[in-house]
Structure formats: C-alpha cells, structure tokens
Amino acid sequence: MWNRIRFIYEDCFNVAVLLQHSFSDYANKRKEPDAQLGLQKRIDEAKRRLKAISYIVNRNRSERGIYLNEEQQRLIQRTLKDWNVKLAGRKDSSVQGYDKSAELVKGLDEPAPSSSYYGNQYALDECTKEFYMNELEGHLNQEEQTWMGVKNILRPETASDKSGEDVIVEWKWKEKLEKKIDECMKERSHLPVWSVLSTSFTPSILATQLLSSLTAICSEGQNVMPINVFNFMLLHPVMQAIQQKFMENFQLDEKQFPMTTFESDLLLQLTSVLSQLIIESCTFPSQNANGRQEIRNAFAIKTVSFEEETSLSPEAIFTPARNSLALRAFHFQIPPRPWIDAGVGGPWFSKTFDIIRNLYDFRELSSIGEMRARMQSPQQARPVFDALNQLGSTPWRINKDLLEVLKQVFSMSYNAKHESLLRPLAVPMHAVTVDVPQFQDHFPGKTRFQVVKENHPEYVDYSRKTAQSIKRRNEYNSLWCWMLYRVVLAERYKDCVLFFPHNMDFRGRVYPISPYLSHMGDDVSRSLLKFAKGRPLGRDGMRWLKLHCINLTGKLKRASIAEREQEVERLMPLIIDSAEKPLEGKRWWMESEEPWQTLAICFEIRDALKHPNTEEFLSTLPIHQDGSCNGLQHYAAMGRDREGGEQVNLVPCERPNDVYSDVAARVELKRIEDEKMEEGKDAEIARELRKAMSEAVPRKVIKQTVMTTVYGVTMYGAVLQIKRQLKALDIDNEHTGLFATYLAKKTFASLNDVFTSSMQLKDWFRSCARGISSLWRPVEWVTPLGLPVLQPYVKALHTQGHLVHKPVGSKQVDAFPPNFVHSLDSTHMMLTSLHCSRRGITYASVHDCFWTHACTVADMNEICREQFIALHSLPLVEKCAEDFKHKYLTPEMTKILSPEMLTKMQNLFTVQVKPGKLDLDEIRNSVYFFS
C-alpha cells in the first residue's frame, strides 16, 4: 500500500503520518509479542520512508483541503519537529475562507463596523466555558443512551396510584427476561443469534436493555402497533449496543467504522428471537369472564386488516409515570458540533449524522453522497454549512408563563365538556372522551354472528358509527400523544438553555433535527420557545412588539401599518387582560388565528410595560417577518414581472397587496365575459355556475391553487383543490366537477396575465426537465451559494450487469420548478443569516419567515431586502441554462445524439423568455415585502 501512495502533496502526507501513529498505538496495545514484533517492523519501515520524503513535500498546494482538528495538527507539527523538518510560518490561502468567485458572500470575512455591531449574539452571561464543559460530560453520556425518560406530568385523575413502571416491577418482567435469556444463552438454540448476543451482553444487561425498549413501547398508549415499528424500537438499541461493544473490543471509533454491517438475515433472526423471548416472558395477571385469576401474555403478534376496537386501551392499565422518548434526534443543552467542509461533522460529538435528509420513497439514491461527489473544492458550499451552524448555535429557552397556561388547558382534555374551548386552541381531546358504541348495548343477548345472519337493519348503522368512533379515537390518541411529548419536554427543560441543530433536504431547505421541540412547528411549538439572550427594546422595540401582536391575530392583513398601530392601541386593555387573566378574563387571545403565540406576545407586552424604563426592558420574544407569497416573489424577481411584483409586494405601496384577492377578481371578470357570450361551452358553464354561486368568486376558492402554483400543482391537482372549496360552500351537485375544472382553467389564465414572464419561466423549467429525463439523467444544478443539488427521483434498475438509476420522468418534470425556487428561497434565508451573524443580530427562520429581537427588526429587514436584490441581480436563469448545456451536452453526448436531437436540446437549453420591467431596487423601499 505504501508504495502506491503519492506523498508529494501535504494532505496525503499528513494523513499518512496520522495513520502511522495509529498503527503504532495499535501495535503497542497488542498482547501477542510475535505479532507485535512483525507489525512493528512494518511500522518502522513506514516511518523511515515518511521521514525521508518529509523534506520534499509540497506545502503550498493541497489536494482536498482536509479538515484536521487541533490535536491532529499538534501531533503532525510535533512529528515534523522531531524529524527536524523546517516549517515555514505560512497559511495556505487557497483553502481558507470562502470561494473568491462567490460574489454573494464577499465582505463577510471583514468585521462589521462597530457602530452597527450588536455584540456576540450567541454568548450568555450565565453560560461560561466551565459551564459548557460540565454540560458536555452529561451530553456525551446522553449520546450513548437510546431512550430518555421524562416525567409524565399529565397522568389522568383516574389513573391508579401505581405507575406503569411500578406495575412492570410487580409483574417481574426483568427477572423473567433475565432467566429466559440465561437459558437461551446456555442452550444456544439459535447459534448465530445467541453468539452475537452473548459476546455483547450478560443476561442482566440484555434484560435491562429490552425492558427500556418495552417501557418506551408501552408508553405509546396503544394496544396495537405496526410490527415494523415494534421491531425497530426493540432492535435498534440492541444493535447500537452491539456496535459499540465491537468498536471497543477492536479499539475503533465511529469515524473508522460508521455503519453497522449485520446481514439482513441475521437481523431477521434477531427480531424473531427477541420477539418470541418477550412474548414468553412478559405476562400479567388478569381476571377472566368467570372472575377467575389467569396469567395472560402482555404481547402477541397477529394480523390486523382494519382499525380494531382494541387499538386503544379504555381501561388504561398501563399509565407510565415517565414517557420514554428516542434520543437520536433531539435538542441539545450545549452548542452542537459544527458542520464543516462537504457537510462532515456535527451535530453529535460521538456519532455521525447526515447533513442531508434522504427521501424515503427514493432511498435508492444517497443525496449526501451525490452532493459530495459533485464538490469541486473544499471551499464550495462553505456559506451553506456556516448558515446551518449559525442557526444551530442560537440559544433558546422555554416560555414558562406560556407553559403554565398550556398545562392547565391540556389537563382539561380528559373531559368532553371542554371540547368547545380546546378545539380553537388546537389542543386535542384525550381518546377516553370518545364513546365507542358497544355491541351488547345495541344487541343485548346476541352474538355478532347471529346479528349478521339475521341481516338486522340496525347493524349497518351500528357498524358505521362504531368505525367512525374508533377512527376518531385513534386520531385523538395520536394528536394527544404528540402534544404530550412537547408539554413534558418543555416542563423537563424549562430551566435550561436549549440549542436546535439543523440539517437540510437535498434542495438546501433547512430544518431543526429535533422532531419534538423546536421553533419550526405549529402555533403551540412556536409559542413555547423564546430567545435565551435578551436585548433591550430600545426606542422602536415596543412598536414592533405591538405590530407583531396584531399581525398574529390575522385580522388586519390588508391594513396599512398605521391602521394596525391604531388598532393595537385600541386593543391594549384586552391585551393586558389576556396576560393577567388568560383563562379567567375576557380571553381575547383565543380569538386570534395563532392564539398561543398571541398569548406569548401579550405576556411580553405586559412585562415590558411594567418595567420602570420600557426601552431598557430585556425582550426575549422573537418577532416574525413573513414573506408575501415568497415563492411567487422569487418567480416575479426572476422574470422581472412588474405587475406580478406589485401583487406580491416587491414594489412599494400604501397598503399590502393580496395576490389571492387579485387573482379571484380576475377570475370573476373572466366569468362575466364568458356569461356575455351567446354560445360556447365556457358560456354555458359560467351561467350554470352563476346559478350555483351568485356572488363573486371568493378568495378562498382559488387561494390554495394560487399558493401551490409555485409548488408545481397540476391542472388535476388544482381541480381537486377547487372542488373541495366548492363543496365547503355547499355547491355539491353533478356539475361541481365541471365548475372546478372551469375555475382552475381561469385561475391559471389569470396567473399568466399577472405573472407573464414568471409562468413562461416555469414552463421552460418543465421543458428542460422533460428533455433531461429523456436523456436518462436526473435534473441537477448548483445553488448560488455553491450547494450541488440533484433531484433524487430515480428508480434502481439492473441493466446488462450494471446498476443504473433511471429517472422517474413525471416526478423529475413536475418537481423541478418548485425545487429550483425552494433552492433560491433557502439561499436567500442563508444569506440573511450570514449577514445578520456578521452584525451580531440574533436570527432564526422558518423557511420564508425570519425571526429576530424587537430591537433589531429594522436591521434584519434591511439585510433581508439587500440580499434578495443581490441574489436576483445575478443571471440565475441564464446560468442555469449554461450549466444544463455544460452538464448534459458533453462532447461524449454530442457524439451519441443525432444532429436533429442535438439541435433540439441546444435550443431547449437556451432561455427565450423576455423579462419584464420590474426594477429590483424598488424592493428596498417596499414595507410589505417581508412584514
């Protein structure tokens, strides 16, 4: 191997030095003297060769710019010093900082002027270096665990004094499991399985591991669980422990051996053996129909073809004192480990994690592998990874005032009489509030077989109501458990500083890794969190708090800023009442579109007003600035559509425009024109539609279709959307389908009228994707920040002994326009993050909704607009076309294609859309662009 390695460049040489040290450490730990002696000879030979060539290594050129941590760098420096190699004090500028050709990030390496710098937005006075080092030890221990128990603070009043955990101890599951495991290990009935298990576990440790998983399974609150979910929850912790034991035995770390390599057959055997072990060992006492005591199995495997009445337990035999939650994707109490070049690194400190989420339906293709294969240099996409690190480093806290009210409201979910209060607050009722019709109550003294045989007329109605009740009960249980997880986690961490590591999808859209508690969720999730770092409101902060409050209500979307400010002053008594008496007062906050976030801002306004000096009040509540139909904003900017830009607030105006209302008005005008026609199919449908819907076309009928245009909605999808809205208006007859098709056509036509160039660009994107798919290639491009994007919609095929990824043509075509736009909106978000970070502005985002402190909203708004203009000042469409030509019309491909096909593809990859007259500079003065 050593004879084949090229050591002339520094990276390869450095890795070889580290490898040589690893071999030396390994040899020193070997117990067999003969083997150790032979290995040491080879290591000494490698060391002599490395020392001999250390003087000729080119230290001014790096092949890949690999990342070395401080310890590795010190080790290499010490080694070279021992070998008397002279080290020049130089820095390889070729791998430092961002790519010099990346125009959008120029200047970010320069410090911000002191006059516009707000200080370190990540530093907290109470979180010193010593504090984080102490927390790190606990975090590393947590990374070794699979489950985390959190106190169940909402056990029902009907629950017994004994918790589920107490009952399990009473039933002696651990002892029974341990005894059965010991017997199996001695018998070795399934030799491969028990060979694997016995080398990694003692009977006691394995029994404890299985019991932890069973407790987590039982805390799900269901009597029926899909077998694949059960198997994963049971097997994953066991395999994780086996992997860890293997690496300890062979002195490996996860970087050297990142994947479990168990064969699928062995995994199947393990699942089968462990399931049978649990079924036989885990029993509980019960009374039969005759009142006699009997022992029953707690677990069983059976086939279920419909939602059963037993899918939830009405008796609540198992009510845990603690809920067990998976730790693999969780929030942190220390800043996460950063992502570095090529998306390597964070957030775990002892385990690997993918920076890109794979699509489950298209898992044959690894998005992260494809991304890394297309990286041209170490500097590429560094701004993307930096933005992820910045978002993950923002410290958060639980909003305690809000949590207390939420706990009170959530505790009402056991009583059906509170449903009218809880439903508008999006708090689900508990499953016990759903009454399922009982068979014997409807057909006393009869069996189901008798009733079916008699063809009883009431049985059909009974079956329908029963099925509906069971479905509703199961839905309630799912929603209730989801709410419970968030509430108990918020209670558990209410006194802690929290961090939310982020990763992204293949387009670069960013998401917190934690599935339970994060700011990217519904109204409840967002309301539970606030920034850990407080900043003084300053001169303009209270104004932004009040505007945020009225914006959350959703009732003045078309009003000007001045009108909103006037209205919020009128509502101040109700805002204070909501904060002082959220459940006993007038409950104004409950009338809001986002009630929980509204209550949170009511608390913040009250606390600020109570402060002796409002301007000095340390505000921690995030203030949101939302894009105005952001996807269409990007389309309008790319196509320079002046009229479309006005509708999505790219152009200054006195009050915010509403694209949905404008399109609805245009659809109505087209209907009126059709009604005036003497004949024609559209005329007939328009007149029939007028009879069914005499008023003008409502905004809500076409809103979803307009909104999803940017997401690639098809005519078929648009018809279904509009049909649902018509039915909601009680327009449900034999003509509803015709009406929906008619309105969908008029909606698309109206969009083309407003967004002329934009819709032409969308059609061009689709045509390009169709042409690329015909070449058996997936669509790929590079974002303005250098992130390689490849659409993963492929199917694996075996052709002539080779594995090929065949593009799914329809999916490639339909998904490309929205995916391209999403890659642009993520780029805009990341640019805003990078520039906010440079100025010390706290920043968080939910896609096209940007968050910051009240005192820095104006600064963030300025940055947001400047970066949008900078992004769309680039020739994005033209570069996309040139990249397509370079990528898909290679010299090899031009030899294969016929002259006619080559000409067709060259024409296809040439932009022929004439841009409009929108002036991007106007965006700077548009108040409602993001507001």
TrEMBL record:
Reactions mediated catalytically: RNA(n) + a ribonucleoside 5'-triphosphate = RNA(n+1) + diphosphate
Family membership: Belongs to the phage and mitochondrial RNA polymerase family.
Functional summary from the UniProt entry: DNA-dependent RNA polymerase catalyzes the transcription of DNA into RNA using the four ribonucleoside triphosphates as substrates.
Signal peptide stretch: none
Gene Ontology MF terms in the entry: DNA-directed RNA polymerase activity; mitochondrial promoter sequence-specific DNA binding
Location of the DNA-directed RNA polymerase N-terminal domain: 137-393
Uppermost EC category: transferase
Entry's EC annotation: 2.7.7.6
Single GO cellular component term: mitochondrial DNA-directed RNA polymerase complex
Protein name: DNA-directed RNA polymerase
InterPro entries membership: DNA-dir_Rpol_C_phage-type, DNA-dir_Rpol_phage-type, DNA/RNA_pol_sf, RPOL_N
Domain of life: Eukaryota
Keywords linked to the UniProt accession: DNA-directed RNA polymerase, Nucleotidyltransferase, Transcription, Transferase, Transit peptide
Gene Ontology BP terms: mitochondrial transcription
Keyword Transit peptide on entry: yes
Keyword Nuclease appears in the UniProt entry: no
